[in-house]
Request: fold
Amino acid sequence: MADHAAQAVNFAAASKAALQDSELRGNFRRAMDGLMTKRAVQFADGQEWHRMRALAASVRLRALSKLPELLEQLETNLTRNGIQVHWAATTAEANAITLEIMRKANATLAVKGKSMVTEEMHLNAFLEDHGIEVLESDLGEYIVQLDGTMPSHIIMPAIHLNTKQIAHLFKQKIKDAASTGEDAAALTDLARRILRQKFMNAGVGMSGVNAAVAETGTLCLIENEGNGRMCTTVPPVHIAFMGLEKVVEKLEDVPPIISLLPRSATGQPITTYVNMISSPRKEGEKDGPREIHVVILDNGRSSVYADPELRDTLRCIRCGACMNHCPVYTKVGGHAYQAPYPGPIGKILVPQMEGLAKRGEMPHACTMCNACVEICPVKIPIVEIMGRLRVEAVRPGTAVKDAGAQASRTEALVWKGWAAMNSSPLAYRLATTALSTVGNAAPASLPLLKDWTNVRSKPRFAAKTLHDLARKKGIPDV
Amino acid sequence: MSDARAAILGTLRRTRDAHPLTPPPSDFAPLAEKQWPPEERLPRIRRLMEAVHTEFLEATEADWPTVVTDFLTREGAATLLYAPETIDGAVLANAGPGGSLHLIPYDRPIDDFKQQMFEGIDAGLTGTLGAIADTGSLILWPSAQEPRLLSLVPHIHVALLRADALYDSFWQAMRDGRWADGMPTNALLISGPSKTADIEQTLAYGVHGPKRLVVVIVR
Reply:
């Protein structure tokens, strides 16, 4: 069995390739511009925005402040409601739990609504290795699955493709696609016909969870397409996957999240469906699954939680707005990150989950422009955490997995030299004089300089240092 | 996997206790302030829902069965699935089918007629618990009498909305109705027909759920 999680990643090379792809860049630019504009319309009332996000942030912080107790309360209430709860420390454990449920249900086909946690698990590939078909039913996920790739955005998985490319893909992979042409409505209708057959026949339906309410034992899911409702209502067994941070304390805590998530994500006042599930089919009810399972996944989240500063990463409600506003994401696209979560939230979450040895590059792909922080509906200090991870990457420590993985002797030496130069007036004067007289003779092709001068002109040292100029003006050295 | 449970909860408790977190108070005022004068609620709901292709019909308690069956006949629907054990369902059955429309009762478990449900039903009729002015959303609590798939599988979902059952916000509906005291198997907000923008941001309606949502305002 292939270890799907262990594939090598090369963010820098993938970004470089993405930057050369003008069609891809066009697709992202158009989509992100549209999403930013639509979001801004929803938050035209600045007062309302500030107060609502303060409320939503307080809801998430309160949940994190009582996280172990709320998870226990959630488990108690879900169990009382007839929902079975499973705990998984790792993605391997979560996959094994899922396989066992599928086997007990004698199911060979599962339909899945959007779930980013199952992307973390590489669940589809795992189950396929065990002879089980998993069909993605969110249209974007379905397209990505047909294409054999992964989502490039957590809300709009196929945003990297345009209609023409999708029509071409359908024509290649689906035999009745000949007549659909390049019309989005016709392509959507074709997917509807194919997937309805699958909803009808699947033994298991799978979904994510947007919020799990400890007080009532309720799973909340939001979506536009109706595939989430199909997956959680038609098949006889429903498995819901959630990261352990998804719990909220009270039912009343759900409306603030529902109010901000769709507005931030896609600029719509609300999603078509808000689906709240509190129990499997009861005696006398005519539909709904007879069994519901909830898989609560850790996968590194408890280590993120351990550090009081990094813990804020877990406030996230997965709206994806940070991606839409990120100048780096917009240019390199989602696939370059080669991670389940791309963009700003991915750059702080994935290195903490998978370690800085594998993901140390991610926190560096940030201009620290703070756009993501300004629009985050739960006020995650993304850029501060990014800075912290950059330090963790070069300094051996215990807070983050593989801390110090990127420590480099050369870099340490350069900084040591820098410190020495700046802490002695004599050394400083000698160094600046030397650079202003012979610095410009250094060729642009020098090993370290080359990375900069490849795409930019070489900076020139001024003939006179600032100190010289100041002294000339009669300003004393002191 | 009870080992995982103990380990996870142990880590969370230990690290939280080492670095406790004091959350700011939750001020629900911005939700409580979302209010509209009673006469503005319905027009707002209509405007928001029409913006996402919801259709509206006007009716009274006396004539809504005719309004519904006439509309569906006109639109070429041949079959209407309904909930015979609800009051609305009984009223509809009493009024009888209009024209060529066949009334099909949802009176047995889905397991016995899945194929027909998916392939032989044009429209489904449900009631609602009301609607929400803030976002333009219908509230549904499906039940043993009025099952969940009625509002999901048929291509046209017809929903009855009593004109006096209007709320300002989801938060208000939840508090006034004391939802936290006892949640049903499934509670739903529905704000339009099924839709997607997954193909190059182009809105397309009727991807997996109903292609059309028709709200009948009953006065």
Summary: Residues 27 and 366 of chain A are 21 Å apart (CA to CA). Chain A has 23 helices and ten strands. Strands of chain A lie at 84-88, 109-112, 133-136, 204-207, 211-213, 218-223, 237-243, 247-248, 273-277, 291-297. Chain A touches chain B through 103 residues (CB under 8 Å).
